[in-house]
UniProtKB/TrEMBL annotation, chains A, B:
Keywords: Calcium, Hydrolase, Magnesium, Metal-binding, Phenylalanine catabolism, Tyrosine catabolism. This is fumarylacetoacetase. Residues 7-86 form the Fumarylacetoacetase N-terminal domain. PANTHER family: FUMARYLACETOACETASE (PTHR43069). Its EC number is 3.7.1.2. Its cofactor is Mg(2+); Ca(2+). The keyword Cell wall biogenesis/degradation does not apply.
Length: 363, 363
């Protein structure tokens, strides 16, 4: 069972007319944690109070939730609840950590240059995104308008299949993050919707802005790190060797296969194993300058692409030159009404909650 | 008087052992709004509840605060209070709206190219910064470490003198912002500290990240738009004419002179009048793709530079080639122990609250 007692991801749900509260997914049900365990932390409208408690409390909650789930009490069918954005997102950072993705985009956009910029193998390149437009899986995505450079609805609306990491324990200003597992609570699936035409025109020299800021979707379920213990793998080898502050202290690669479905057809199955930079390195980099972390910070990996299995349409269709075949039709970029669903699982049978969204026409 | 009854900026203060609350600056005193007017909105630890109320309530509060200030009651000497970050910052966006600044940086970094990128005159270039490291004026600034590309403390630590705009009234996802004054509550001074060596190495292709994210300082006082009514001026002429969504509906240029003091010596006095893009255009651009605004969003203008009066040291010293003379010493970039204070005033005698910070050595 994908969402069995070894998984137990956390989310925020409500029943009609009732306030939001914290739950744990058990199969096709939600365990009502506030009812099962008691306590204000679980009656909160986001996971943030739980996130702030730290690793010992997370492990204790997980053990108690497993016991409670086994009793069969306080389980509400998923069909009877609404799922909400699980985290009050503080800062949102997006990395660019896949060698295949960065190389593909370099080849597409700068065919006469080296695909990778000189910094790429020395640090996990990243930037800040818009925290206020992170939405929960299932939220419809309105096609954005903007300068492409003529003004109008984006004609090159794309996806980016990513894995996101939710920070629980903050740092003080000037302090570097400690061990990955002491700060990071768990893992989400993320779709960083991207308007490639808007992005291509605006992004020099300060990076992506409106091409990304209209919406970023995240899964309703946050899988705690402890559920992924068996999926941990050594990160991919790195050349040149990273600076000491980026040295891996423990294996935080993840044996996680993603699946990208477009209108129900699987179009790609990239693996997170293939990421060049691992999430512990992203965390170390993000705080090496003394920037503080807050409870609720979300950082995402950037598009997860494997050889022949990319996590974006711009790669899959080679900038539109080679359309994807769907039953009776083709796609270069997304059309109105299209639904994209990203799922993921480990080889040990742990599934991540899906992130899904349907495109609404521009207004 | 700089902070007379025509000014009345808002901030958050506390007295020893007491909780934070909202105040209004009156000369060298703080008017305790919670005591003077009553109400939970003013007993809050940030301006956000007041910001959320909207323009009619802002104007009513301002009128009542002016009456209360005139009575002389509930005034606390500034020397007896601690000033705090006035706004719980939601998203922080930084623009790049000065023609002189963008041209200078283009000339310094890309001497063989056109100084401005092709998009620059078509849209206000901007990017998201780190909201969690926005700090109040007076907070010491720790010199960041990072890849320059060798690892170590930044050797090119710089300032950016900017004007920031605080959003009160949010928008819904998919909705464009309406009139500037219906969303924006007021104005702050901002110093966007920048580690030029870290930034230069990391910023391709996704923009500034650790070179900026360690700290951004804002003034403790937010000057409401109504205090700047007489300072409003037509924006600078623009060629080519911007797209209709960027058309100016009303004059939101500001006749505002900034002064940058380094260890007490004035090194530059740029004018906000010289900005190419006006803040109403920044707001229109930021939301044209349907990205929603939240109460507490902060967007800053980017470095304010005038001809011969730039708002950053990299421009003032032409990338270190022409050091600034101070009494008995010179500066290219900031040294440990340096204090930078940015002030600003209109020609009608309205002062903005200063933004100041002192550099601590790297750890």
């Amino acid at each position: 069972m994908s969402f069995g007692l070894g998984n137990l991801p956390y989310g925020v749900f409500s029943r009609p007319g009732e306030p939001r509260r914290v739950g744990v997914r058990v199969g096709d049900h939600v365990l009502d944690l506030a009812a099962a365990l008691g306590g204000d932390v679980y009656a909160a409208p986001s996971l943030n109070p739980l996130l702030a408690l730290g690793r010992t409390a997370w492990q204790e909650t997980r053990a108690r939730a497993r016991e409670a789930a086994a009793t069969g009490d306080h389980l509400v069918p998923l069909t009877e609840v609404t799922l909400h954005l699980p985290v009050e997102v503080a800062d949102y950072v997006d990395f660019y950590a896949s060698l295949e993705h960065a190389s593909n985009l370099g080849r597409i956009f700068r065919p006469d240059d080296e695909p990778l910029k000189p910094n790429w193998r020395h640090l996990p390149v990243g930037y800040h995104g818009r925290a206020g437009t992170v939405v929960v899986s299932g939220t419809p995505i309105r096609r954005p308008c903007g300068q492409r450079p003529s003004f109008g609805p984006s004609q090159r609306l794309d996806i980016e299949a990513e894995v996101g990491f939710v920070v629980g324990v903050p740092t003080r200003p000037g302090e570097r993050a400690g061990a990955f597992e002491d700060h990071v609570f768990g893992v989400a699936l993320v779709n960083d919707w991207s308007a490639r035409d808007i992005q291509a025109w605006e992004y020099v020299p300060l990076g992506p802005f409106l091409g990304k800021s209209f919406a970023t979707s995240m899964s309703a379920w946050i899988t705690p790190l402890d559920a992924l213990e068996e999926a941990r793998v050594e990160g991919r080898s790195q050349e040149p060797e990273p600076l000491p502050y980026l040295a891996r202290q423990a294996p935080w690669g993840l044996d996680l296969t993603l699946r990208v479905d477009l209108n129900g057809e699987t179009v790609s199955t990239p693996s997170f194993r293939d990421m060049y930079w691992t999430p512990d390195q992203m965390l170390a980099h993000m705080t090496v300058n003394g920037a503080s972390l807050r409870t609720g910070d979300l950082f995402a990996s950037g598009t997860v692409s494997s050889v022949g299995q990319p996590g974006s349409l711009i790669e899959l269709t080679w900038n539109g030159a080679d359309p994807v075949k769907l039953p009776g039709e083709t796609r270069t970029f997304l059309e109105d009404g299209d639904t994209v669903t990203i799922t993921a699982w480990t080889s040990h049978g742990i599934s991540l909650g899906e992130v899904s969204g349907r495109i609404l026409p521009a207004t």
